[in-house]
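User: quick one
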Amino acid sequence: MSTRDTVLAAAQRLLTTDPTASMAQIATAAGVGRATVHRHFASREDLLHEIGVRSLERWAESQRAAGLAEVVAAGDADRIRACLEVLIDAFVVDADEIGIALTDPTVLNAPDLRERADALFTQEVTLYAAAQDAGVLRADVPARWLGHSLYGLLIAVRDALVSGDIARRDAEALVRSTFLEGGAAR
Amino acid sequence: MSTRDTVLAAAQRLLTTDPTASMAQIATAAGVGRATVHRHFASREDLLHEIGVRSLERWAESQRAAGLAEVVAAGDADRIRACLEVLIDAFVVDADEIGIALTDPTVLNAPDLRERADALFTQEVTLYAAAQDAGVLRADVPARWLGHSLYGLLIAVRDALVSGDIARRDAEALVRSTFLEGGAAR
DNA sequence: CTCACATGAGACAGCGGTGTCTCAAGTTGG
DNA sequence: CCAACTTGAGACACCGCTGTCTCATGTGAG
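Assistant: Done. Structure below.
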């Protein structure tokens, strides 16, 4: 792994727990000198931006891997269900890695990242809308609300894992099941 | 409203949108001088701590107003359902007000606040557990997970409101319905 | 071996935020 | 009217972080 990637990974990890971590702390966490960090990233903002870009690429890759576009075009209920499942699992796996990108002001306020994130969210909402049409997801709530609620569950699963309230191996199933069936008894 | 309360309210509002807002920005938002802020709060940490205390009091008050303790003791399914509803509505109303207290590192890392928040969460989980026993909430997931997932939905509703994806008047119903029934079609 | 290159360590100036202080200008209550 | 109190504005020193620079060290390729 290149020094650049080492720094990037350490920053992603550290900033998730402490968004205010300084460049010096990031350098220490990466096991490199502070000057070296600046050699690879002109400024703190640059570093955050790069993390944002990578996180969005990861997100886009998840959508691609789940075959989102084709599934939406097909509109088949079973395929939609499977696609949702794949997508949720990918999210849970990436939750802590792309966490900062979803919450840090520096990342959120970068216009280009904001735009790409909106595009990805909107892209994803097409799946929810298709799911509503196919009778997979309930149609009495806005499709975009379904997107937000899944995002909220990702925050929840991260917290639950940190506080040790759920087992890592159960995480995907809990999110899937809660997103679809909710918490009420049957 | 006392100057102190004015500052507190402005800080709560401002910090929700920008957690890194400086004391000067807070002072401006409150319409007072920077020195005045420091007259009422010895340090930035003090101010944050006070906000945390108030948010936790609000939370505790919501539990009291919903009669949580008595409902848990009674264990009656209908009363549990009603209690949940009242609690969720109160959360949605307070979501943006106590938002910072749930995310800001300064608040989260204060040991005394951390302890009180844990106590309140645990208290609330007794309701979820009682709801599971009474057949109101599903019993095949950890009670604490239900707590986390509701918390996640609060984050979601705040985001959805900010981005204009849902109407304010629909917020409570969406959270209630999504928490209980999930997103799958029936 | 030698050169090119990346690195660690440290020094440095600049910047913005913090917390303290003072002083002049209201405001309130007796 | 007057005294006590509160405020706004500004000045100030302090601190930590940022970004730049230099220099010595180490390492790999030729």
